[in-house]
Amino acid sequence: MTDHSNPYLPYIATVDDTWLETVGDRCVRSFKVTLDDNSARESWSHQPGQCAMVGLLGVGESMFCISCSPTEGKFLRFSVMRAGKVTQALHQLEAGDKLTVRGPYGNSFPMEEWKGKKILTIGGGIGQAPLRPIVEYVKANISDYAGLTMIYGARTSNDLCFKGEFEEMSRCDDLSCHLTIDVEEEGWQHNVGFVPQRLLDLNPSPENTIAITCGPPIMIRFVLENLKKLGFADEQIYTTLENRMKCGFGKCGRCNAGHLYVCKDGPVFTYAVLKNVPEAFA
Amino acid sequence: MDLDKLRKTAAEVVSRDDVKYLIGWRPGSYGYRVAPGFVEEASAAETLIFSPLCTINLATYLTLTEKLPLPRGSAPDQRKVALMVKGCDSRAVLQLLVEKGIRRDQVLLIGCPCPGVVDTALLSLKYPETESPADLKWNGDHFLLRQDGQETAIPRLSVLAEKCRLCRYPNPVISDITLGEPVEAQLTAEDSAVAEVEAMELGARAAYWEEWFSRCLRCYACRNSCPLCYCRDCVLDRLNPTWVNRAVNFSENTAFHVARAFHLVGRCIECGECERVCPANIPLGRLNRKLAREVREQYGHEPGIDPDGKPFQAGFKPDDPEEFIL
Amino acid sequence: MSAMLLNKQKWTEFTGILSGKKVLAPVACGDRFRYAVPAEGKAFSLDFDRPLVPPKSAVFPQTETLYRFQLGKTELAAPQPGEELILLGVRPCDARAIKLVEKLFRWDVDDPYYLRRRELTTVVGLACLEPGLNCFCPSLGGGPASTEGLDLLMVDLGDSYYLEPLTDKGRSLMDLASGLLEEAGEEGLQKKEEAVRRAEEKIRRTVDTDGVPEILPDLWEHPLWQKTAAGCLGCGTCTYLCPTCHCFDIQDEIEGFEARRCRMWDSCMFEEYTLHTSGHNPRPTRRERTRNRINHKYSYFVRKFNVIACVGCGRCVNYCPVNIDLIETLREVKEAQ
Ligand SMILES: Cc1cc2nc3c(=O)[nH]c(=O)nc-3n(C[C@H](O)[C@H](O)[C@H](O)COP(=O)(O)OP(=O)(O)OC[C@H]3O[C@@H](n4cnc5c(N)ncnc54)[C@H](O)[C@@H]3O)c2cc1C
Ligand code: SF4
Ligand code: SF4
Ligand code: SF4
Ligand code: SF4
Ligand code: SF4
Ligand code: FES
């Protein structure tokens, strides 16, 4: 038994399933993971927006957002872009392999507070990972919300994550899903163009709406600009920050954006808060 | 050194259209300290000095300054950086040119023939530093220390930096403007510090370095201050693969020091910065000078001397005597 | 137990009493001192200069194993609680720093490694009767005989040490040596106060920290950061040697089939500290890093814990190889207001 008063000690977890979301050099692979320890599995609870420190013994740990909603079941899901040491090693894993997991860390999207509102998610590339739990959460509690609009884009259709999941969304009245890619492609039936422009074109009303955006910094910058154009107030706009992290609970000092510890005070912030933090969009 | 001339020259240089700024020495915040002075306006040239306290090798800043991505549409600033150099510093610049780390048209060198600088740590040990600014001047075989209205003559050799005692190139080997008269290179003294380590038995020598390397904090001040440690992607910072673990202990520290020493073989120009900046006082000069001497004696190569030379580690000689193979 | 005197002639006997315990004391290495276990059987004295590496390293080692494991296995073994430790000859500023950093390690989630070592450590301070050139502890609410963070304060009175117990740990240490001690009395107290007063007069450098935490956010884009950072080498000297710096990295390290996950000091002055794999760096130059260091100590930490995370020990000023002088920077901050 591991001593869980020691926050550095992770749980051991098993990969149940893993599949590629995208292809290429910086491909994204998703993992469905369950904690080995029964009581840990039962007591684990996370909310959309939270993260966990995923590690491989002998390689290292990295922070990932939990890309599933608690409504989906007693498992965790991570969607990992292949980048450096840890993520490359994670991409080698197969079902049955062991991982370390600690968390959940950080605050979460205030799903309770948002009840009765329209939810608008605006994602780009791997930035859809923290947004997916919102989508799933709203889908599972659809009567609590006044609808969900999802705008999601990537460079090419190959770079879109969670592709298999969008089909069913178009079948439900309260859900709408708008996909876009940067450049024309043969066989592509959806929009072509950048995410910020797609947002403007769709012209969603800010009325009783919460907008959540996540993606590459440059996309976020223009999405924020366009949300302002559409009349969204700073308090209606949410995003998540991604600073380098080591501990996840306010000790290692590394994740700060100005006076905020992204791992404790975030990763979820309203634009109203972030616009006053000079380092936030650095 | 005629300070008026130095300042006038510096003011002229920074006024030139093709010069971005000038890096020289200015008095530090107290006592014996001297700081790098970045001069952009002619008026600020008034703060510059050149004295036996000017130990810092400013050539480091040529490669240390970050190059940020340019805003779209703007052209890169092609103007030169003007740099004040002592003899050893100029060798660093020359070596950088030979290695193509910088381009000749990127720098404007103001050479300062150098009668030798002090070991500031030694100086403050023998003549305790106070908070009021001190001035040190060359005066034959003495340094004249002026502080708090008092003047003290300090025998030159008692506080001279070790590297200066061994200096073979006190006059800049490359410069665009030279200030003052060339100084006479002294007779090359024996490197008694290296000899002392060489004289140790193998076991004692290992123990000597173990003792020192164990004290290393891995603060990397030595690497960062080194004008020739300028790799954008240093092996020491690499995680993937990890060549040197970040754990601080004798074995990892040794891996670090050996890696660094070998990366400087035939490149170290013996400016002594690494040893000067080391907070743990590790005698890094002994390590690097030993290797420099081997290269000099075994291969007849001296870095930072020959503008048309080839980088040592990129060279191959068919007539290599191969007297020692590791 | 009240304040007592230890005659210096009994010093060796006193250290003998401690010999059953693990003691760290300032030991000379060339001309610099560091905290180390004094060589066995060798007498050691408290006649030392300010140690290079602050004693934070005793409670927050530069490299610390979080847990060990064998490659291919999943059993994780966290290290056993260590042994009791007596830290001798701690400068009051460094003791204050240990206490300040504890605030962070207790905040929200307890850090068991730091807190356990802290609990096991008895901190015995020695007042600085000869403050260093760059000591400015009084400017930060400390002083050459400040007691914050100490279990026991010693003051050198010439032929004896004045021992002032401050906590139960300090008292029980004095109990051990009670046979060697004599009542300090009114006269001892007066001598001590006189010595401390003289020490305070010897402090030469000061900063006016009043209002600095409030000013800093307004100076975010001020040219002073570019100016200060221009000469900075981006090394770890000012942060590794700072008694209040507490940032760390976590890495896995393998030796044969044995492996461990460990943490090690890190520094916000390093480029890699915030670097993403993509190459994006939220703090791309030394300007932003320097600004972070000063802001963290003098503003962010204050917002969280209501106290400046600098104790004025002067190490960053002493050892910065290019004379980037915190005291000057703070003066410029005040002037830029
Ligand atoms: C709150 C949070 C949520 C994240 N969610 C996801 C996710 O859902 N999917 C995903 O693919 N990635 C996510 N990331 C980024 C992910 O953590 C990095 O890509 C990963 O750490 C790279 O590690 P590496 O060992 O492969 O790379 P290396 O370059 O070998 O790692 C070096 C170290 O750099 C840091 N690092 C490198 N890149 C980043 C980055 N982009 N952001 C933060 N730290 C970085 C890490 O501390 C890492 O340990 C998230 C990061 C944070 C902070
Ligand atoms: S400067 Fe000294 S302490 Fe720092 S890394 Fe170099 S040798 Fe080690
Ligand atoms: S010690 Fe000096 S040079 Fe090194 S990082 Fe700190 S301020 Fe910069
Ligand atoms: S910031 Fe400098 S003076 Fe302040 S505690 Fe740290 S090292 Fe000492
Ligand atoms: S952020 Fe920088 S200044 Fe603050 S504790 Fe960490 S290393 Fe020290
Ligand atoms: S700052 Fe200086 S005088 Fe004050 S306690 Fe520390 S070492 Fe002593
Ligand atoms: S990740 Fe360590 S403090 Fe935030």
Keywords:
heterotrimer; A: 282 residues; alpha/beta; Elongation Factor Tu (Ef-tu), domain 3; Rossmann fold; 7-stranded mixed sheet; 6-stranded antiparallel sheet; globular; B: 326 residues; 2 domains; 3-stranded antiparallel sheet; 12 helices; 33% helix; binds flavin-adenine dinucleotide; binds iron/sulfur cluster; binds FE2/S2 (inorganic) cluster
Number of domains of chain A: 2
Number of strands of chain A: 15
Number of E-type strands of chain C: 11
Give me the Rg of chain A, rounded: 18 Å
Which ligands occur here? flavin-adenine dinucleotide, iron/sulfur cluster, FE2/S2 (inorganic) cluster
Largest interface: A-C, 40 and 49 residues
In terms of per-residue confidence, which ranges of chain C show pLDDT below 50 for 5 or more consecutive residues?
Answer: none
Description of the molecule:
The complex is a heterotrimer of chains A (282), B (326) and C (337). With 282 residues, chain A is an alpha/beta fold. Chain A folds into two domains: 11-105, Elongation Factor Tu (Ef-tu), domain 3 (Beta Barrel); 118-240, 3-Layer(aba) Sandwich (Rossmann fold). Chain A contains eight helices and 15 strands. In chain A, helix 5 runs parallel beside helix 6. The mean pLDDT of chain A is 92. Chain B is of the alpha/beta class. Chain B has helices at 3-15, 60-64, 87-98, 120-126, 156-159, 162-165, 192-198, 202-215, 221-225, 250-263, 273-277, 284-299, and strands at residues 19-27, 34-39, 80-85, 107-111, 135-139, 142-147, 150-155, 177-178. The radius of gyration of chain B is 20 Å and the shape is globular. In chain C, 33% of the residues lie in helices and 20% in strands. Chain C has twelve helices and eleven strands. Chain C has helices at 11-18, 56-59, 92-106, 112-120, 168-176, 185-201, 212-215, 224-229, 237-240, 286-305, 315-319, 326-336, and strands at residues 4-7, 22-29, 32-36, 63-70, 85-90, 121-126, 152-156, 160-165, 181-183, 248-255, 258-265. In chain C, helix 3 (92-106) runs antiparallel to helix 4 (112-120). The mean pLDDT of chain C is 93. Chain A binds chain B through residues 60, 84-85, 88, and chain B through 239-240, 242. The complex binds flavin-adenine dinucleotide (FAD), iron/sulfur cluster (SF4) (5 copies) and FE2/S2 (inorganic) cluster (FES). Residues 239, 245-247, 267-268, 293, 296-297 of chain C line the site of one iron/sulfur cluster.
